C-alpha cells in the first residue's frame, strides 16, 4: 500500500513528499483543520498497516508560537459570546464597523474565504471525491435538503415575522461552516469526509443558496436570486479559488502567512456576528417587556417576558433549526447504512452552517436589519451545540456503535 495523497483543504503548508513512491508498513495522513470560523490548526493522524516495510514518516513539532496562535483561535465561541454581551451593554462599540456595512461585512467574509483558499489544493480534493463519491454526494444532498426544509418548517410553526422567517430560511440554505471540521475531529468522526463536504457545499452555494432561498423565502419577500448568486460568487467562491491559485504559485509566501490565518478568521467572524447583533439591540430590548415589570416581579415572570419577545423567539428558532440538522442528519445517514464515523461527520456537517455568509447576504440584499439576526445568533448557538455534541461523542467509541457494514464505493 502506498500513500497517494495528503489531503487537507485547510492544510497548513504545501510540503512536497515522496512517500507515494515507497511502500509503507504504516503511513500517516495528516489533516490540519482550521476552526471555527476558519481555522484552528488541529492535526489528526490516520494510520494504515502493510506487511512490506517498516518505515514511519516523522512529523516535526510545530513552534510554540504557532501552538499559541492555534489555541487562541480555538476560543471562537468565547469571543462571540463576550462580543454579544458587549454589543448588548454598549452597542456603540461596533458602530465603526456597522456604519461601513454592508461593504465591511462583505470584505471581511471575502478575506476569511481567501484564507481558506490559501490552504486548499483542488487536485487533492478531486482525488478524494473520486475515491468515495457516495458518502460525499449524500452528505452534500443532506446539507441542502434538511436545513432549508426545516428552516421553512420552523419559521412557519413558530409564526415568525416575515423578516425573521427569511433570515432563518437563509441560514438554513447556507453551506456548511468549517467549525464542523474541528467538531468532527473531537467527535471521532470521519474528518476527510467533513472537510470535503465543507468545500463542496461552499462551492455549490453560488447556485444552491440563492435558488433555495428564492423558492422557500420568496413567499415572504421578493428575493433576487441572481444578485444573491453574484454576491456568493464574489465573497465566497472567487476568494477561495484565488487563495488556491496563490497557494500553488507562491508556496513560500503562503507558508509564512498561514499560521496567522486562524486567529484572523476567527476574530473577523466574531466581529461580523457581534456587529449585526449590535445593530438590532435597541429593537430587541424594546421587545422585552421585562423592563416595564414591577420591581418585585418573580424571576419566572421576567424569563417569560424575555422568551415572549423577539429575542426569545429568535433563540428558540435557531436552536430548533440546528437541532433538526444534527438529529435528522445522523438519522438519515444511519438509515442509509453509513458507518458510525460517517454518520457523525454528516450529522455535524449538516447541523453547522456558514453563518457569516448568511449575515453578509442578509445585510446586502434585504432592507430589514432583522433578517440578519438569525444568522448572527447562530454564530453563538451553533458552536455551543456543536461543541457539546462533539464532546459527548468523544467518549463514545464509534466502533462499538457501528452496526452497519460499510457500503462499497463510499
Automatic annotation (TrEMBL):
Pfam families: SBF
Main location: membrane
Key words, A-Z: Membrane, Transmembrane, Transmembrane helix
Subcellular localization, as worded in the UniProt entry: Membrane; Plastid, Chloroplast envelope
Membrane topology category: Multi-pass membrane protein
Cell membrane found in the keyword field: no
Family the UniProt entry places it in: Belongs to the bile acid:sodium symporter (BASS) (TC 2.A.28) family.
Annotated PANTHER family: OS12G0170300 PROTEIN (PTHR10361:SF66), SODIUM-BILE ACID COTRANSPORTER (PTHR10361)
Official protein name in the record: Sodium/metabolite cotransporter BASS2, chloroplastic
Amino acid at each position: 500500500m502506498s500513500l497517494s495523497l495528503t489531503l487537507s483543504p485547510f492544510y497548513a503548508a504545501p510540503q512536497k513528499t515522496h512517500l507515494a513512491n515507497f511502500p509503507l508498513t504504516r503511513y500517516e495522513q495528516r489533516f490540519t483543520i482550521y476552526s471555527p470560523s476558519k481555522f484552528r490548526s488541529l492535526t489528526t493522524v490516520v494510520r494504515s498497516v502493510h506487511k512490506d516495510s517498516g518505515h514511519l514518516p516523522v512529523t516535526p513539532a510545530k513552534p510554540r508560537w504557532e501552538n499559541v496562535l492555534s489555541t487562541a483561535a480555538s476560543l471562537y465561541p468565547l469571543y462571540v459570546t463576550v462580543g454579544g454581551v458587549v454589543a448588548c451593554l454598549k452597542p456603540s462599540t461596533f458602530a465603526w464597523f456597522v456604519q461601513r456595512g454592508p461593504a465591511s461585512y462583505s470584505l471581511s467574509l471575502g478575506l476569511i474565504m481567501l484564507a481558506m483558499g490559501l490552504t486548499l489544493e483542488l487536485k487533492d480534493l478531486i482525488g478524494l471525491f473520486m475515491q468515495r463519491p457516495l458518502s460525499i454526494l449524500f452528505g452534500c444532498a443532506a446539507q441542502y435538503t434538511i436545513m432549508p426544509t426545516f428552516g421553512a418548517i420552523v419559521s412557519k410553526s413558530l409564526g415568525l415575522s416575515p423578516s425573521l422567517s427569511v433570515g432563518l430560511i437563509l441560514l438554513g440554505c447556507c453551506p456548511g461552516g468549517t467549525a464542523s471540521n474541528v467538531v468532527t475531529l473531537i467527535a471521532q468522526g470521519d474528518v476527510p469526509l467533513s472537510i470535503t463536504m465543507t468545500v463542496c457545499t461552499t462551492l455549490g452555494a453560488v447556485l444552491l443558496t440563492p435558488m433555495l432561498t428564492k423558492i422557500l423565502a420568496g413567499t415572504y419577500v421578493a428575493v433576487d436570486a441572481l444578485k444573491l448568486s453574484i454576491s456568493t460568487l464574489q465573497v465566497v467562491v472567487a476568494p477561495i479559488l484565488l487563495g488556491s491559485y496563490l497557494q500553488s504559485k507562491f508556496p513560500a509566501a503562503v507558508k509564512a502567512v498561514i499560521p496567522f490565518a486562524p486567529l484572523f478568521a476567527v476574530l473577523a467572524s466574531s466581529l461580523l456576528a457581534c456587529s449585526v447583533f449590535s445593530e438590532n439591540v435597541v429593537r430587541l430590548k424594546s421587545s422585552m417587556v421585562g423592563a416595564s415589570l414591577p420591581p418585585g416581579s418573580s424571576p419566572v415572570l421576567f424569563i417569560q417576558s424575555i422568551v415572549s419577545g423577539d429575542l426569545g423567539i429568535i433563540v428558540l428558532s435557531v436552536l430548533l433549526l440546528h437541532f433538526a440538522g444534527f438529529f435528522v442528519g445522523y438519522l438519515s445517514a444511519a438509515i442509509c447504512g453509513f458507518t458510525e464515523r460517517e454518520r457523525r461527520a454528516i450529522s455535524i456537517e449538516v447541523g453547522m452552517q456558514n453563518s457569516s455568509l448568511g449575515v453578509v447576504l442578509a445585510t446586502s440584499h434585504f432592507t430589514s436589519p432583522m433578517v440578519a439576526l438569525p444568522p448572527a445568533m447562530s454564530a453563538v448557538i451553533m458552536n455551543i451545540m456543536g461543541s457539546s455534541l462533539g464532546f459527548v461523542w468523544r467518549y463514545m467509541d464509534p466502533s462499538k456503535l457501528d452496526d452497519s457494514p460499510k457500503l462499497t464505493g463510499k
